[in-house]
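INPUT
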Amino acid sequence: MAERLTLSRQLDEHAARRRLGRLGATTLEPAWMALWAAPLGMTGKPPGAWLLGAREMQRALLLTGAELPVQVERPDTGIQLTGATAPTPEATQRLWLWERMATPRLWRIQALDTPPTPVWLPCWLGYRAGRKHQLTVISGLSGEVLSMIKPLVLAGLERAHDHAQADTEKTLPAG
Amino acid sequence: MEGFTLVDMTVLIVYIGLIAWIGSRFGKDQHSPEDYFLGGRKIPGWAIGLSVMATQASAITFIGAPGWGFEGGLERLVTFINVPLAMIVLIMVFVPVFHRAGIYSIYELLERRFGPATRTLSALLFLIARGLATGVVLYAPALVLSVVTGWSVNLTIIIMAVLAISYTVLGGMSAVIWTDVIQMFVLWLGALLSIFLLVTSLPGGWSDVFAFGAQSGMFNAIDLSLDPSVTYSLWAGLLGGFFLHVAYFGTDQSQIQRVLSSPSVLDAQRSLLIGGYLLIPQMLLFLFIGVILATYYQQHGLTPPEDLNELLPRYVVNAFPTGMAGLVIAGVFAAAMSSLDSALNSLSAVTVRDFYSRYIKQDASDSHYLKASRLATVFWGLYATLFAFFAGNLGPVIEAVNQIGSWFYGALLGTFLLAIFSHRSNARGAVTGLIAGMLAVWSVSSLLDVSWLYNNTIGVVVSVSVGYLVSLTSTAPRPEQLSHVIIEETAPDMQAILAARSANAPKIGREARLTRRRCIGLFVWFVVMLGLLALLQGWANG
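OUTPUT
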């Protein structure tokens, strides 16, 4: 299996703080979401954009650029959210077909016949404590609100919480 | 009176050619795939918002609203006074749910929540309603062409239909935002120039307009009558018009498509915000032109055309300086093409996604679906053309478009409200509510003398009530059916996790919330607009 690439975080804490603050969040933390990037472009030419997705997502995220903005270092600070599974090439093709159907301007661009690359997508998680606790997820690349991956983020947080609890129980002295 | 001269015709052809060139230059022949994507992201939000407005209603407004104003003054502005309030609901409720669900067609949400029958029925209603409304949109530029050339309107409908269908099948250019923005400015320029020329042609100028308007009650925009048969009372505008616009902007795929395609919720909100702020002033501008035209016709002893939709195009052709008439008429054509392209695209997209790829051919190639979508475009183009022949009998085109939607969209909105807010409602209730809602609208509008503005309200109330009550007769939906409409983090376990993480995360500090600020801004705008109308009416009535 290909090594998971780390997309470099382009929205620093100061910028994320401002953006999430405008969205009503009161606290924030960095996170990394495990997704898969499928290249898009014209046949026989290098990619021009990437579809970021997972099998569990109904619609993929679009990342523009000929190359993925990758950093050499592994994800540093921030919770790593896993649990999503890789989309099949057929599913990616179909997702892209419907994207193009919705935006006919994109018709010429195709999902290239290359297996999707596993990536860590940097995000910022904003929390708001009101009558209920609410979560806002923004991209660590562009600062856009990523509502579509929120179910995956919540599932990842739950998974991380369960792991942490299991670890705590293991380390507790018996008896 | 100069008429449509050779210079105007040259300007028209050059303008259309230039717009087509910009469309093909920036829309299709990009050098790399990256250009396709980055092109859209460099465009400022205000331009995207204006582009949405241009696609929505510019040609229809230009042609229909002056006739409306000529006939009834500013009283019909109440139809649009509720738009800021409708946008608040869309921004706070619909956009987040639609965006989070990750859907291409909004009717998919109904399938996830209620099953395939509700999706199919609602998508079918959209196709019927939008197809009919597209006929009216097609009629508008055909009428202008008829005024310009003197040809029969039936012939110009066929010409415009052939142009619009070919243009859409060949790829269209509605996605080129700057061409939409140019069209919007050309139409506004046309409106302002009309006002200038009309007012300067009156001996007393503005004072004649205000005197005539006040004397004939044309500034009485606020009618407080509680009688439901009064078509444009304030209550019909607030209660009926509010649901009309929530339904129109929230349950019509051709309107919500750009919201679904927006990269983020905030971008989606922005395009609605621009509509929320600009629709009332734009409508006021064009209704006011109607009032000025009424003054002009009265002072010059002229007989208005039988079809009031012809008022402004006729004036532009006859009174504008050489060249300017060509420019404005070209703007109307281009804006109409943009609306037609957008409507036909969404009709064919829903046909392929919600019907063809589900019931006829499930796993075909991309090129097969492209071919199917082109055939669907031709089919809906022909359907719209058939209806366009009757559109001239429906009165002002702007009212016709809204009336057609009001037969269907109220019940559809009720079904979406049930899907989002009632966790007890189920498929049986949704389908029954949808059908009952439409039957109620048709019964009330044909049997009782009630303002058509209430149609959507009746549709919403009946479909929600019947839908909810019928739902109680069968089992409640499963939790996974609710997962697309409920806020996932509200589950008790998740709340505990979020509380723990939030407690350990760095604090942001107190800052205003953007969405709330935007909604408050829209509400203030609504109050300001209503206040200004009340002041104008108070002044006119001494």
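end of record. Chain A touches chain B through 61 residues (CB under 8 Å).
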